[in-house]
Amino acid sequence: MVGSLRPVTPPLPTDPGAVPLPRRPLDPTAGPAGAVRRWYENELGWPTVPASPGLPVRLVVGPRFDVLEVPAEAGLAALRHLAAGSPVAVQGGRMRLLLAAGCAEEVPGVLAWLEWGALPLDLTAVGEGGLMDAPAPPAPGTAARPGPGSVVRGPDALQGAAVWMRPPEPGCEVDASLPVMPAVGGGGEAPDLVRIVDTVATQCHRLRLRRSRA
After folding, report:
1. Which NCBIfam families match (predicted)?
2. How does pLDDT run across 160-184, given as a tens digit for each residue?
């Protein structure tokens, strides 16, 4: 986010992994919502919004990641382009692909460059200032991420709650797995945002054509 003289001090480290994450203290009265907040803030360093009565804990979008939300069917086609550690959540038939922070504002330009800009597509890029329902943290010992064709089942998904299809791994290293623009992709190691946007746009268009014919 983008004076007077004072003693010179060494610069602070800019690598998030070099700075210990501030840890939320244990509050036994906070209940399950408090445990969810502690996991995201202590293990991942992701800021949260406290749960209101009847509402889930929410993740603050922008500081650590952005979100590309698409129909789940369209999102499944993009999973093959993601890194193994790229987190993916689903909720109510929608898939949320986590992007590197700042990428949401690039999505409209990418769609225009790919010549998708003039078509109505059922996708939304959420960036700074947005919120996302926090899926329940993965249970200890949960198997790694499901394959590209997997569909999440279970009580949380059936009740419309957000669930992780590919949960994030604790630690700041999750940032390196998020899709970015090719020019800042760190030598091609991070997933390519352009390829992912093109894939989901194609699938969204196919879904729209299929519904129009029905």
Report:
1. SCO3374_fam
2. 899 999 999 876 678 899 999 986 5
Contact yes or no for 64/175 (Cβ under 8 A): yes
CB atoms within 10 A of CB 163: 21
| Phi, psi for 106 (deg, rounded to 5) | -85, -20
pLDDT score of 47 more than 70: yes
- Dist. CA 38–CA 22, nearest whole Å: 11
List Cα–Cα distances, 155 to 17, 89, 151, in angstroms.
35, 15, 13
Indicate the length of the chain as a whole number: 214
As a whole number, the mean pLDDT across the chain is 81
CB contact at 8 A, 84 and 90? no
Is the distance from CB of 99 to CB of 66 less than 8 angstroms? yes
The edge-to-edge listing of strands for the beta sheet with 65-71 is 124-126, 65-71, 94-100, 88-91, 163-166
CA 110 – CA 115 distance, rounded (Å): 9
Q: Which residues contact 184 (CB under 8 A, 6 or more apart)?
A: none
